[in-house]
From TrEMBL:
Gene symbol of the encoding locus: dxr
Molecular-function GO terms, alphabetical: 1-deoxy-D-xylulose-5-phosphate reductoisomerase activity; isomerase activity; manganese ion binding; NADPH binding
Swiss-Prot/TrEMBL keywords: Isomerase, Isoprene biosynthesis, Magnesium, Manganese, Metal-binding, NADP, Oxidoreductase
PROSITE patterns in the record: PROKAR_LIPOPROTEIN (PS51257)
E.C. number: 1.1.1.267
Pfam family, one: DXP_redisom_C
Name of this protein: 1-deoxy-D-xylulose 5-phosphate reductoisomerase
Length: 397
């Protein structure tokens, strides 16, 4: 029986994780669930899965949860505050930690799990975008097992040789006969929308992803294709490769989840429904396989597959992220911070859809050559870049 902690249990990935775990009660037990503020949702999850611990970022929400659980005579112990999330991620009884908090807030609790050598299932891509080099060093130093949940990275991982998947120190791709990683993306909801109308994109239009059902922030990132940019940076660190080894390919059907091209001309791809419960089930059971609630693919029902290159004018954010990746960890931390501020401002209707790009561009230009090596540097730069971006939100208004 492996004990699982879910950071961000009430989110899209958290709920998908619980739906896979519910199918395998003999193999997995929920040790702890965490959320930020959503009391009712976490309460329902605690009553169903009876974890030993629950934690909420917001102390007031934690107090409400505690009272509600007491009224149900629940034995779940409730903790509060950001330190409690990190404490549960590092709990001695935790075998697997699902890192599914959205944004930079996921960095410290995820690192706490890495530092205890846990098996970390990484959905929180922003953690790697901010601290890739430091994060991967810690994974190695503390003997943690890092398994990608992001569907593209999970697909690439599945297409890599077993020697790479299980290596303590990840070898260079060229040593494994690999020529290139092909990172696929659907192109989001605006693949064929007239670019001249982007300034009037509404929040409802931006979060309506054609293939995937996800949280709000990643849905907006998919519309700008910043999501693919963050994934580009994520792939660079996860797979120990150079930016030149990664190519982004638009595949609007989202059935191929990414591919690996070998030097002999072979291309291996992982296919499946656009449903995160497949990569989650894969990583939970790795190196074995377990069932998931996902419907199998029916090839007689599939439309034609198509592929294209992402146009720079349509997806400038993708290219900003690629530029940041080449510049270094300071640039990626600052761009990630700017983008979180910009997306939040767009969702609350303070800025237009096209302002997300303007804000990210200005922020990246300002912080492009900043160095951020230690965790303290990264946290300080994240803070500074957010303040700079907030200032830009006010001037764009
Ligand atoms: P959601 O917005 O649906 O869920 C976010 C979760 O994090 C919720 O449980 C939320 O709690 C919690 N949370 C939010 N802010 C904080 C904070 N400051 N401190 C602690 N907890 C917090 O996000 P998703 O599930 O969509 O995404 C999670 C991560 O996974 C992101 O990094 C995303 O990029 C990545 N990912 C998601 C995919 C998807 O299909 N959704 C696919 C690939 C990657 P509460 O509910 O209380 O607010
Ligand atoms: Mg993805």
């Amino acid at each position: 029986m492996r004990q699982v902690v879910i950071l961000g249990a009430t989110g899209s990935i958290g709920c998908s994780t619980l739906s896979v775990l519910a199918m395998h009660p003999q193999q997995f037990k929920v040790l702890a669930l965490t959320a930020a503020t959503q009391v009712d949702k976490l309460l329902a999850q605690c009553l169903e899965f009876q974890p030993r611990f629950a934690a909420m970022l917001c102390p007031k929400a934690a107090a409400e949860l505690k009272a509600a659980l007491a009224s149900h005579a629940s034995a779940t112990e409730v903790l509060a505050g950001p330190d409690a999330l990190a404490e549960l991620a590092a709990h001695p009884d935790a075998d697997i930690v699902m890192a599914a908090i959205v944004g930079a807030a996921g960095l410290l609790p995820t690192l706490a799990a890495v530092e205890q050598g846990k098996t970390v299932l990484l959905a929180n891509k922003e953690a790697l975008v901010m601290s890739g080099e430091l994060f991967m060093d810690k994974v190695q130093r503390h003997g943690a097992t890092l398994l990608p949940i992001d569907s593209e990275h999970n697909a690439i991982f599945q297409c890599l040789p077993a020697a790479f998947q299980q290596a303590k120190q990840r070898p260079a791709l060229s040593e494994m006969g690999i020529a290139k990683l092909l990172l696929t993306g659907s192109g989001g909801p605006f693949l064929s929308r007239d670019i001249n109308t982007f300034a009037t994109v509404t929040v409802a239009e931006a979060v309506a992803h054609p293939n995937w059902s996800m949280g709000q922030k990643i849905s907006v990132d998919s519309a700008t294709m910043m999501n693919k940019g963050l994934e580009f940076i994520e792939a660079r660190w996860l797979f120990n490769c150079a930016p030149a080894d990664i190519e982004v390919v638009i595949h609007p059907q989202s059935i191929i989840h990414s591919m690996v091209q070998y030097t002999d001309g072979s291309v291996l791809a992982q296919l499946g429904q656009p449903d995160m419960r497949t990569p989650i089930a894969h990583a939970l059971a790795f190196p074995d396989r377990i069932s998931s609630p996902v419907q199998p693919l029916d090839f007689s029902q599939l439309a034609n597959f198509s592929f294209s290159k992402p146009e720079p004018e349509r997806y400038p954010n993708l290219y900003l992220a690629i530029a940041a990746c080449a510049a270094g960890q300071g640039a990626t931390t600052a761009l990630n911070a700017a983008n979180e501020v910009a997306v939040a401002a767009f969702i609350t209707e303070q800025i237009r859809f096209t302002d997300i790009t303007r804000l990210n561009e200005k922020c990246l230009a300002h912080f492009l050559n900043y160095a951020a090596r230690s965790l303290d540097d990264i946290v300080a730069l994240d803070f500074e870049a957010r303040a700079y971006a907030q200032q830009l939100v006010r001037t764009l208004n």
